[in-house]
Amino acid sequence: MSSLQNKIADRTATVGVIGLGYVGLPLSQHFTDAGFDVVGFDVDEERVSRLRVGDSYVDDVDDDTLTETVARGFRPTADPAKLAGCDAFVLAVPTGVESGTPDMGAVRQATRTVAEYAPDRDVLFVCSSTVYPGAADEVIRPALENSGRIPGDDILVSVVPERLNPGGEYDFEEIPLVVGADSVRERETAQALFDSVVAETVPVGETITAESAKMIENTYRMVNIAFANQFAEFAENAGVDAWEAIDAAGTKPFGFQKFTPGPGVGGHCIPVDPQYLTWRAKQTGTGLSLVDNAIEVNEAVPSRVFGQIKTALSAHGTDLDDASVVVLGMSYKPNVGDIRNSPALDICELLINAGASIHPVDPHVDEAVIVDERYEPASAIDRGTLRSADIALFLVNHDKFDTDKIAEDSNLIFDAQNAVPEYNDTPVVRLGDGNSEVSSSSLKSPVSRR
Ligand SMILES: NC(=O)c1ccc[n+]([C@@H]2O[C@H](COP(=O)([O-])OP(=O)(O)OC[C@H]3O[C@@H](n4cnc5c(N)ncnc54)[C@H](O)[C@@H]3O)[C@@H](O)[C@H]2O)c1
Ligand SMILES: CC(=O)N[C@@H]1[C@@H](OP(=O)(O)OP(=O)(O)OC[C@H]2O[C@@H](n3ccc(=O)[nH]c3=O)[C@H](O)[C@@H]2O)O[C@H](CO)[C@@H](O)[C@@H]1O
């Protein structure tokens, strides 16, 4: 075994985690729990200050866990020089999209930081940020070479795409991780590191293979959600209850994974990652029209939902510019506070621009800026506000929402999650349900509901 592999095996290696967000902070915690000294570097000094005093901004690492992790030796810092002496570096910096092109700025910058401070020899570099197929070849290795390093020799390079599932049902260590590297030595060293924190690592022969696997995982999901969203539109106009039909399809024990419609597709991964693949496909001469179309389908959902809200209000005698709208759920999915690319924000922006007054409610979201105005969502539903509002939009099915009370107190409901029960004569516009009031063509007076 190399001296680095020995240091990983006996936990005397020091791990540097670069980027302390939704991915980097849990990684820092788990490497610390595995017995490593961990230095966490982030350019955001305010975040570092909060971490130092046990004030977590990541749902998956609560304050007590963070305090314990710092007590065990985790060292958050905004000073890159503190990374000197680390034996392994794991990148968890943001990778976005700028007008359809992958934004590799943070990856490039963080790679240069590693090259500057890493020891001269026996160093492992891991990219856990989500990048396009070929990014290690085109961005990471050249950035290391430009800093005088020899990738695969004095610095080992691997790609280990993160699969953590914020607020999800799988614990970190239960989720297998794909480990991609272009040589046996690099792959085995990266596997040794990640075998310390997850039950299973899956080696693949090249970094581009690991990058591609990540693209397949999230593009598969995005395309199938787009199908569920487009099926909902079909169902609304064909008199089908999409939710019941999808549930029924879900009873098939093989060859089918259930996806459901919603107000749009948010988060940092699903709407973003497939755009890396289509960008790369265009570069290498393949048009992934299916993926391009699916992206467009999902991007169009919030405005379609806005149209249905406008129609529903109008059918109940209220113009948008005079409407009071309670928005139930601002985050991009249930039981998380992450509002990145949240469709609720798009819908609220359309409502505000149409003159409606919105009353956001979300127990997990502290603030959201919409049309340059800062909103602090109520953490709980005020029944008086609900009773006096013209419509309640049920956009995110947080466990903390009491759907019975919502049904009881609302005058009109737009239910984008098929989660609000019927209550007396409360009219409900149910996304994807051709039997409810869903679109101008099929809108009926309240009494004609099922
Ligand atoms: N959030 C998820 O559920 C998830 C899941 C899998 C993969 N990923 C991927 O992991 C990567 C990180 O995502 P995230 O959700 O943790 O992002 P995040 O925005 O929560 O955290 C990123 C952190 O990196 C810091 N940062 C930015 N540039 C930096 C630099 N040059 N050097 C050091 N720190 C820097 C930011 O200040 C921020 O604290 C992305 O590529 C994302 O696609 C995210
Ligand atoms: C490591 C990583 O990359 N993990 C990803 C992460 O993705 P994520 O956190 O972005 O969450 P998603 O669940 O994919 O939701 C995205 C948006 O799509 C909407 N949606 C979803 C399902 C559906 O049937 N109908 C919908 O409309 C939902 O409301 C939300 O806005 O976790 C998933 C497991 O949860 C993983 O599989 C996925 O790889």
Describe the structure.
The chain is an alpha/beta fold and 450 residues long. It folds into two domains: 3-205, Rossmann fold; 206-450, 3-Layer(aba) Sandwich (Rossmann fold), CATH 3.40.50. The protein is 38% helix and 15% strand. The protein is built from 14 helices and 17 strands. It has helices at residues 3-9, 24-33, 45-52, 63-71, 105-117, 135-146, 184-194, 207-238, 242-249, 273-283, 289-315, 343-353, 383-388, 403-409; strands at 14-18, 37-41, 75-77, 88-91, 96-98, 101-103, 123-127, 155-159, 177-180, 201-204, 324-328, 357-361, 368-370, 373-375, 391-394, 413-415, 428-430. The strands form five sheets. It has a six-stranded parallel beta sheet with strand order 3-2-1-4-7-8, sandwiched between helices. Strands 12-11-15-16-17 form a five-stranded parallel beta sheet. The protein has a two-stranded antiparallel sheet with strand order 5-6. A hairpin with a 2-residue loop joins strand 13 and strand 14. Helix 1 packs parallel to helix 7 (184-194). The chain is elongated. The model is unreliable at 439-450 (pLDDT under 50).
Q: State the helicity in percent bands.
A: 25-40%
Strand order of the largest sheet: 3-2-1-4-7-8
Tally the structural domains: 2
Shape field: elongated
Sheet/helix structural class = alpha/beta
Q: Mean pLDDT across all residues, rounded? A: 94
The gyration radius over C-alpha positions equals 24 Å
